[in-house]
Amino acid sequence: MARILKMLKPYIKFKVKQVDIMIKCGQLLQRKLSENNLKKIAVYIYELQKANYATRRKKTLSEICQALGLTP
Fold it and tell me: Which member of 10, 26, 53, 67 has the greatest number of CB atoms within 10 A?
């Protein structure tokens, strides 16, 4: 996933910040999913939803951690 996003990045005009965050997530997902890596992914998910301007209710960092089975 990260490799494909890196190849597409020069052609993306909007949502560049989101692509950068997704590349970081993709690189972490290729590794072993330790608790530390899951915490980093939770933070990236939180940053990603903050960068989007959807009107839906957004989850807090503790809700995201709970969904991933982590303690906040």
Answer: 26
